[in-house]
Every structure is written in structure tokens, then in C-alpha cells.
Amino acid sequence: MAKIRPKIHFLCSACGDDFPKWYGQCPSCKEWGSLSEYKISHKKNGRKLETRESRSLASILAQEPGTRISTGLKEADRVLGGGLLSGSLLLLGGSPGVGKSTLALHICAGIDRKAFYVSAEESEEQVGLRARRLNVNSEHLHLSGENELDGIISHIERICPDLVIIDSIQTIMNSGLDSLPGSPSQLRDCGQRFLEVSKQKGVIIMIIGHVTKEGIIAGPKMLEHMVDTVLYMEGDDRYDHRILRSAKNRFGATHEVGIFSMNEEGLKEVINPSEMFLAERSKEIPGTCIYPSLEGTRPILVEVQALVSNANFGTPQRNVNGFDFRRLSMLMAVLEKRMGIVMGTKDVFVNLVGGLRVDDPAADLSILCAAASSAMDKAIDENIVLLGEVGLTGEVRSVSRLEYRLTEAKTLGFKEAIVPKGSFNERIKKIGLKIHSVRSVNNAFKILF
User: Fold this and answer.
1) How much is the pLDDT for 373?
2) What is the C-alpha to C-alpha distance for residues 75 and 77, in angstroms, rounded to an integer?
């Protein structure tokens, strides 16, 4: 008989669509250079498909809702929506060395239930050394260096754990496929198999994935569509703190964050992150102000610093850390056009202290006022917080959850706040701050300067 050649397809790592031939640009998502080759094997793996009985909605609603399992870390429980839910599939991403494996070990020790840690990148002894350094001594924790998919599933059926950690998905392979570990076909098949195991056996499976330079989970984007929760571990080598952020959560709020500090004993929870970000704040210096950020449902106060100086070259610089570069350019244009402060010949540097990344338009007013303070060499009162979205005409628009932001500012000892007129209501008056409600940037400047 003639040998059957494997069928070749091309899979997009951005959207997950496959095509019979290669394209420079994906026809579906229009990404360039995202198609890679994979082979469809004709081998039969002999796996028997398990069919599940259908159930009526009435019988499902009659049951008690699933109880959540605490991770032992309040910050992680906050991000997950109260804890881990049985039968859920989670994806944890982050850059190398940020603390993904450390967080996974803390969770294994904190749930106080049987856990199975699959470390295909390291041996059991190496994971044991890390667990000893972190003072993790769990009798219910089982370790394995297995990297073959069927072998891992056999271990799960034998151990019957409540939690499984896969570290990492890029090193797991299905021997029935003619491709290397980490290839699109391997990630696609392994992710689907783990999804089946999680739902059929009610096991919590946390998959760890590496992040590319573009900041996305390495491999096909379809992994994010398969899982119930997508978590990102963020951090910077210059700082000790780590931020756990939820990008997707079917069982809780999205964009929730948990703050940790990294030391030789592992990850420690930061109970009050605002105090950490304001610990070394500058006072009575032009170019600084305080912005009450909102990360998920948690208010965090951040110091905004701006430095405006004469440009030494023909084209002025616009550098920003922790904020959108294009939005900064727009704010500088509003400052020059509406307030008459010349910025076209100035270098502008903006920094959100502590490495926190903010994409909320409510930070517009604080960034614009910090830049104006530096340009005019006039300091902003250290006891005041500023927030509000700035439009192209110089108006200050309303923001969400103003009450939570101002309550956090009051707790940390601030006395005044400049807020949008459209967000001001009777509940804001009861907080105890002196509130200045403004309609435009011009009104805010009259109060500040």
C-alpha cells in the first residue's frame, strides 16, 4: 500500500484559523507573518471518546452552586473572583522569571487539598529545592517531570488531584502528532485535551504559558478562547512588586489586580498598595501630583511625575512610562491650544511611579496638570488628588466609580480633590474631602495655580 503523506496546513498564531496554503498576511485577522506550518497526522491514537448525558436546566438549577476553593492568598482570591472553582481551566502567563512557578507553588500549598504539579521544564528535585526555599511543605503535593500528554493524563487518573499545574504548556507534547513541542498543532491538541479532562473530571487545571515580546501568550491565541480564566503576571526587574491581573474571567470580574512583593521567601501579599506606591513621593516640587487609579474594583493612588524642558533638537521628545504615548501627545496639544502654554518646542517626560501601567482616561487631568506644573514651575498642593477625562475642547468629562477612588484618598490622609462636574453627586459630599467640581481644564488651573 502507498504510504499516506501527512496533510500540511498553516495555522495563524494570532487568531487560530488554519489555511491550506501559506499567506504573508492572515486573511482572517490581517496579522503579518503569523502563519506557521503544521502537519495533520493520520495516526489513530486509539482514544475512546466519552459521551456525556444531557441534563435539564431545572436539575442543574436545583443543585447548590459550586463552592470556591481558597488559594491561601487573598490577593489571588480577589483576582479569581473569590477562589478557584472546580472544573475550571486557567491560563497563567508572564515573562520568564516574573514569578509564575513561584505563585503556582504557593497556590498548591495554600489550597490544603491534593495537588499535582507537572514541571516539564525542571526535574522534581529542582522544584523541590524551590519549594524548600519558599517553605512549602505540603504532604498533599505530588510532583512529576512528565512531558508526554497521555502520561500526564494517566497520572491525573491515578492520583485524582483537585488541582493540576502544567508548567509549561510549551513543553508538553502529544506523541501522536508529527510536530515538536510548542508548535501550533501541539498547543492546540494539548489545550483541548486538558479542557476535556477539566470538565469531565471536575479538576482545576492551571496552565502556565510564556509571554512573547509583544506581551501575548506564546503560541496560538486560541488558548485564551479555550480557558475559563486568563491571568497575567506582570513585573519589572527594577521593582520588587508583582501584579497579578485577570484579562478574562468567566466566574468573576475582569481587569482585577492583586499586588505582591517578591523576596527570597517568595511572594508576599501587599495589603495596602497605595502606601507602597506613595512611600517615596515627592512633595512641594513642580511637576508632581496624585492620581487615584482604579484597577478592577481596587482603588490605588499613584504619583504622576512630569518634566518639561527646552528641546535640544529640532523635534521635541515625548517619552512616557505607564501611559499611552498617543494620548500623551493629544493632551500636550490640548494644553497648548486651549491653555496657551507652548509645548511645541518642549521635551515632555511623564512617569507613573512604581511601574504601574494605567490605561484609564481618568488619568488625563492629572497628567496634563503635572506637565503644566513643570512647564510653569509651580508646585501642586500635596494634599490634593486630581482625576478626570480631558476632551479635545478642554472639557473635563465624568469618570467611573468616583466614590471608591475618593474614599481611598480620604483613608490615606488627602484633604481635597478636583473631580469632573458630571460625576459629582450627594454621596461624594459625605466622603469628607473638600471637593472642587470642574467643567474644564481652565477651571482646574484656577484652583491649582
Assistant:
1) 95
2) 5
In this model, does residue 142 exceed pLDDT 50?
A: yes
Residue 190 and residue 176: Cα distance in Å, rounded?
11
Residue 134, pLDDT > 50, answer yes
31-82 per-position pLDDT tens digit: 888 787 766 655 545 555 556 677 788 877 777 666 789 998 999 998 998 8
Give 437's strand partners: 419
Q: Are 196 and 150 in contact (CB under 8 A)?
A: no
Which of residues 332 and 58 earns the better pLDDT score?
Answer: 332
Instruction: Classify 93 in phi/psi space as left (phi over 0), alpha (psi -120 to 50) or beta.
Output: beta
Cell matching residue 359 = 490605561
Give strand ranges (E) for 112-185: 115-119, 141-144, 163-167
Residue from 75, 10, 12 nearest 216 by CA: 12
d(Cα 324, Cα 342) in Å, to the nearest integer? 21
Residue 227 to residue 224: CA distance in whole angstroms? 6
Q: Phi then psi for 275, rounded to 5 degrees?
A: -65, -35
In 3D space, the residue among 292, 321, 256 whose CA is nearest the CA of residue 388 turns out to be 292
Higher-confidence position of 139 and 60: 139
Please give the share of the chain, as a percent, with pLDDT higher than 70. 91
Task: Specify the pTM.
Answer: 0.76
User: How many Cα atoms are found within 13 Å in the side-chain-facing hemisphere of 43?
Assistant: 9
Question: What DSSP designation does 362 have?
Answer: G
Element (H, E) at 318: strand 318-321
- How many CA within 13 A on the CB side of residue 165? 28
pLDDT at 218: 54
Average pLDDT for residues 162-185, to the nearest whole number?
Answer: 84
Can you give 175-233 as a three-state secondary structure string? CCCCCCCCCHHHHHHHHHHHHHHHHHHCCEEEEEEEECCCCCECCCCHHHHHCCEEEEE
Question: What is the C-alpha separation between 289 and 257, in angstroms, rounded?
Answer: 23
**How far apart, in whole angstroms, are the C-alpha atoms of residue 34 and residue 219?**
10
DSSP codes of every residue in 230-281: EEEEEE-TT-SEEEEEEEEETTS-TT-EEEEEEETTEEEE-S-HHHHHTTT-
- Specify the residue for cell string 500540511: 8
